[in-house]
Amino acid sequence: MKKLINDPEDVVDEMLDGMLSAHPDRLRRLPDTQVVVREDAPVDEKVGVVSGGGSGHEPTHAGYIGDGMLDGAAAGNVFSSPTADEFEALIEACDAGDGVLAVVKNYEGDVMNFETAIELVEMTGTEVATVVVDDDVAVEDSLYTSGRRGVCGTILVHKAAGAKAAAGADLEEVQQVAQKVVDNVGTMGTALTSCVTPEKGEPTFDLGENEIELGIGIHGEPGTERTEKMSADEITEELTESVLSDLDLSEGQEVATIVNGMGATPMMELFIVNNRLQELLGEHGLETWDAWVGDYMTSLDMEGCSITVCAVDEELKQLLGATVDTPALTTQ
Amino acid sequence: MKKLINDPEDVVDEMLDGMLSAHPDRLRRLPDTQVVVREDAPVDEKVGVVSGGGSGHEPTHAGYIGDGMLDGAAAGNVFSSPTADEFEALIEACDAGDGVLAVVKNYEGDVMNFETAIELVEMTGTEVATVVVDDDVAVEDSLYTSGRRGVCGTILVHKAAGAKAAAGADLEEVQQVAQKVVDNVGTMGTALTSCVTPEKGEPTFDLGENEIELGIGIHGEPGTERTEKMSADEITEELTESVLSDLDLSEGQEVATIVNGMGATPMMELFIVNNRLQELLGEHGLETWDAWVGDYMTSLDMEGCSITVCAVDEELKQLLGATVDTPALTTQ
């Protein structure tokens, strides 16, 4: 497989430097780490909001660092958790004295290393609250997970928590809105092709010329069903119905939606999926308050998409709609 | 080949509807056309700025419709020019009486159909100026082109012209800054894999497991050289040196750069390319004023990237740096 890389061992390092050289006025890398923070971190009189996880999901997470979203993020190696040391450095760099919310995707390595880091920083007086995102409705327990996986819904958690922190809320309030998103969001994905990690250089899993996988994870973990290829409308229906049946929303409920590309999916195809998604939501009597379409939480070069639906109330609408200014997401 | 589509004949129609349903407050589709315009077009007391071309390059062009950029865009079928009728409807919908700038990528179909449309609207008193973008330094004349091809540098033309129009300039002034970008920008691309059109469902061209193509066009048109696969650094050097040798800039010149993904390239890899690009520019004594990294002008599901360099003066810095609010590009 061909990739635009140099030595596979250097991909995260070179990627972070390439990101920094595109955004020198926004981002800063902590020396000798794979931790990236706001150029002006820690921000005075604001709760810090941090996240992190394995690389390969770009623009997640460092792409969401900036006003109204994350204060910093730790990047592990490809599909591997950052170390506890890196999480520790991240939290410390983003604490201005008002505490830090750690947004953790539910993978065993991330959860464990964040926990260790939190124990360490708490010994020096830093207050940390945590929210664990487990929005993937496809499977309970998985290759790297006890319980559900954290996937694209995480971006909405970042957005809501970041906006709440920017508005001057305290740590408990920031944690509460983050948890509110977790309680109201569901995601399910599909793969048309496998991702290929730089190190292995070969597909992580085999998928036939006429096969797709429903319920796929963002590291190529198995989904719910391997099936013959289907039309975009049929795939959209499968994913949407699974998410909606999990969320069990009332008619008239307002929702935010994401059609998320897995890394190698043309934007044309994502809009085609969104077209059917919005029709389906209408058929269910749901009202779309906002619809995002793009590559938010990718899986290297996997072809496919995920659909995220999040029920929103007035508070979440205000927070998700608040202005934000980051490399990957900016609104006026 | 697997794609997230329904009937290949419907891809553009469904894509546009999916885009509209994601941005109902920003975009409006002219009835019975593939023309999309600002919801509030035509904008009073402002020169209209329009573009268009074949589909398959998303977010180009409709993704750049909004405050500070395009007023509207016509979408042809995949890799096919919009008709003269569609260009005519586009121009008329975006003319508030102050004239319209048509930004045309240099492909024979686009140029011819825009010219016919302009003749038609001029008969009804609409004033139109044109700029033809031909930033691809790889080849003179090509499959669909006399002279150079218009590729990713077009986005900078949209940005500068749109900002100038938003600032209240007249048609001649808007045309002049658009031409200034054209005169100062160069791009070159590479493909690791071929694109696959929805209609054909197979690779447009064959590329071996260990081959790449340098100087590729955005429709899979042949480039300058087919070569053995190289590292990201080597590819970046080839592309950058070709662009710089064409532009012939003085030491100390400030530049804007784009590392553009072709549709199926992980963002990780684009940042790795940007890392080497910025080093190289420094070695040439050039100063990067702004660096963009992302999918701006794609070629369906082609894997690869292009590098764009544009020399900027105070006027272009002001225009390229002006705030913009579109589906695909927003700054504060």
What does this 3D model show about the protein?
The structure is a homodimer of 332-residue chains. Chain A is an alpha/beta fold. Chain A has 2 domains: 10-184, Dihydroxyacetone kinase, domain 1 (Rossmann fold, 3-Layer(aba) Sandwich); 185-320, Dihydroxyacetone kinase, domain 2 (Hypothetical Protein Tm841, Chain: A,domain 3). Helices cover 32% and strands 22% of the residues of chain A. Chain A is built from 8 helices and 12 strands. Chain A has helices at 11-22, 84-93, 108-123, 154-166, 171-184, 232-247, 267-283, 314-320, and strands at residues 27-29, 35-38, 48-55, 72-78, 100-105, 128-133, 185-191, 211-214, 225-228, 254-261, 287-294, 304-311. In chain A, α4 packs antiparallel against α5 (171-184) and α6 packs across α7 (267-283). The longest helix of chain A has 17 residues, at 267-283. Chain A is globular and about 55 Å long. The mean pLDDT of chain A is 97. Chains A and B meet through α1, α6, α7 and β11 of A and α1, α6, α7 and β11 of B.
